[in-house]
Amino acid sequence: MIEITTHHVEGAPGVRLFAVDEPDHEKGGGAHHVYALVWGDTERADLDSQLPAGADSPFVSPVWGYPGAMMAGQGPIGIFLRFQKGPIKEFGANGLDAESLLAMVMHRLRCFQNGPFACEANERANTAIGQGLYESLRRTRDRVARQVEGRNIK
Q: Which residues on neighbouring strands pair with residue 34, listed in sequence order?
């Protein structure tokens, strides 16, 4: 299990993020496929006991813990995200894709821009995320045109 800290800002409380599984170099492109986001009393997080098992687990696990647990000091709250593992044509849809998460974050930032918290930083972040989404979708379109999308072929 690896803790990811690139989103941390010193002095600002936040969510702890973990890559839970080992990278899969055979069918998973060398990437991790299960991530945990944990908030609350994260020092007491026992991620292994909460991890949904098996290929049939949902893309997003039910939230474990409960909101009152943080206030009562009874432990963390968390959720697991499971990403697609293997090409869809070979393994079926079995997880989230990065493009969906990028689109979700873009939507959220646009909502902030339409509300009382509009700012240049959100606009620049949304532009950068949009560029990442554009490039990822461009790669997919290229793979579709070459008839290799959904298969383990470069």
A: 82
CA–CA gap between residue 60 and residue 36 (Å, rounded): 10
* DSSP tag of 88: H
| Beta-carbon contacts of residue 90 (< 8 Å; ≥ 6 apart) | 27, 150, 151, 152
Task: Give the pair of three-digit tokens for residue 104.
Answer: 């979700």
* Contact yes or no for 39/77 (Cβ under 8 A): yes
Q: Positive or negative CA dihedral for 7, 12, 14, 18?
A: positive
Q: Give 22-81 pLDDT, tens digit per residue.
A: 888 877 688 998 888 887 655 555 665 655 554 445 445 555 555 555 455 555 677 788
In this structure, the number of other CB atoms found within 10 A of the CB of residue 21 comes to 18
CB burial class (10 A; 0-12, 13-18, 19+) of residue 45?
A: buried
- Which residue reads 């206030």 in tokens? 71
H helices of the chain, where? Answer: 47-50, 67-71, 88-91, 98-113, 120-145
